[in-house]
Amino acid sequence: MPNDKRINSIVSQKEFDFIQEQIIPKKTWENVVGSVVKTTLLAILFGVVSSIAICVTYPYIKSVINDDEEGRLTNLTKHLNTIKIASVIPEFRAEQATNTAVTGNMSNLTVDDYKNLYSQIDVVADEVNRSVVAVTSIVNSVDWLQNPSETSDITSGIIIHESDDKKTLSILVRYSKIKEVNKIRVTFDSNNIVEAKLTNYDSKLDLAIIKVDVSELTLAVKNRFKVATFGDSIGVSAGDPIIAIGSPNGYPYSREYGIVTGKTTSVYITDNRIDLFNTDITDNSNGDGVIVNLKGEIIGVITHKFKNDLNENINTALSISRIETIIDDLVAGRDRTYLGISGADLTSDIASSLGVNNGVYVNEVETGSPALEAGLQTGDVILKIEDTTIISMAQLNNIITSYQPRDEITIVVKRTTNASGGEGKEMTFHVQLHKKKK
């Protein structure tokens, strides 16, 4: 045997292992059945424990998995948190809201509720779209080779009036889009493209009325179009859900959904004060159209006229309640009266400093206006028109527009400047109103 100790140790170990070996008894059927039963019981026990664990942890797992989907509802929930959908959208049927939180707790909205809600809002938008038409302005010119050419621009118009004899439709459109053009065409559908005429406009508000002959439309279009409905914008407040209809993103018949984000400071224009409100819809310089509530009523007209640093990139609308009378006058072709001042409402502090209890402050008197001809000056405070005490520019406008051009009215002012030595005096002027400039 080799003398290598490493080999000797291995051999010794093998001899020891051989001595320790035992004969294993052969398995019987009883042993096999016992093993199967034992394995089955362990499997059942594992299944029970697993089921209990899944039931306990399922709500937490579900919240993690659905976090992204429910996150998509956050914006809608924020917008509509205090609104009962069934009361806002009449078409939202009771059975659709059963066993859901849509009519109550908006924080429990599911993805299906979200989809259903937007489908109902789409119904409102589709109905309003019956009042929308595409308006194309065409300018004829010549190219650099003196060849005749034609350029066009397209925007949206809103059908706002049908004549009593059903022969004429009046369409509200942005004035800057159709001024100084050769032709105006209105598209109702591919088979109904008719020419329109510019009949009236207000350049200060960038609003115009064009009219089309209903007899040129097919019966199908006559049965399909709808005259838009004006709503009340005075009660509009931040958070109210709205729809932008027309071409809010620059494309005709497009729509955008959002909320009112707030009312801005009123804008003072000649003889009037215009109210504005902003939305969270992305502003587009080519966007036009109207803002409607969830009842399908127009509450604002998208404007690009009154932009400043604060609302430069915000979708802004003219409050319909302040301009509805103006639109009615434009449609009817009525002459509108003109005083010719740009004024501002007085706060209580400013009124006190000027020594008056009420009135509007005259910031500017326009050249060639009835106010200038009568003797009104910048710095005057208009206290009365006839026997009516003046408290705001909006009220002043209502009074002025209730008269006809060439009517004479009496205006009482307090002069706050030292012009002609009249500072601090109340003065009376007789003013003959003119026809308002467009």
Mind explaining what this structure looks like?
The protein is extended, with a radius of gyration of 38 Å. The strands form five sheets. A six-stranded antiparallel barrel has the order 1-2-3-6-5-4. A six-stranded antiparallel β-barrel has the order 7-8-11-14-13-12. The N terminus is likely disordered. It is an alpha+beta fold and 438 residues long. The chain has 13 helices and 22 strands. The termini are far apart. It is 31% helix and 33% strand.
Going by helix content, strand content and strand pairing, the class is: alpha+beta
Compute the average pLDDT.
82
Radius of gyration: 38 Å
Shape: extended
Q: Can you list the strand order of the major beta sheet?
A: 1-2-3-6-5-4
Helix coverage percent: 25-40%
Outline the low-pLDDT stretches: 1-24, 64-104
Characterize the largest beta sheet: strand count, sense, and whether it forms a barrel.
Answer: 6 strands, antiparallel, barrel
Beta-strand portion reads 25-35%
Number of strands: 22
Counted by DSSP, the helix tally is: 13
Terminal CA distance reads 128 Å
In short:
This protein is of the alpha+beta class and 438 residues long. It contains 13 helices and 22 strands. The chain has helices spanning 5-20, 29-65, 67-71, 74-80, 85-88, 94-97, 111-128, 175-178, 219-224, 320-332, 348-354, 370-374, 393-400; strands spanning 132-142, 148-162, 168-174, 183-189, 192-202, 207-213, 241-247, 254-263, 267-269, 272-274, 276-282, 288-292, 298-303, 314-319, 337-338, 341-345, 360-365, 380-385, 388-389, 408-415, 426-432, 434-435.
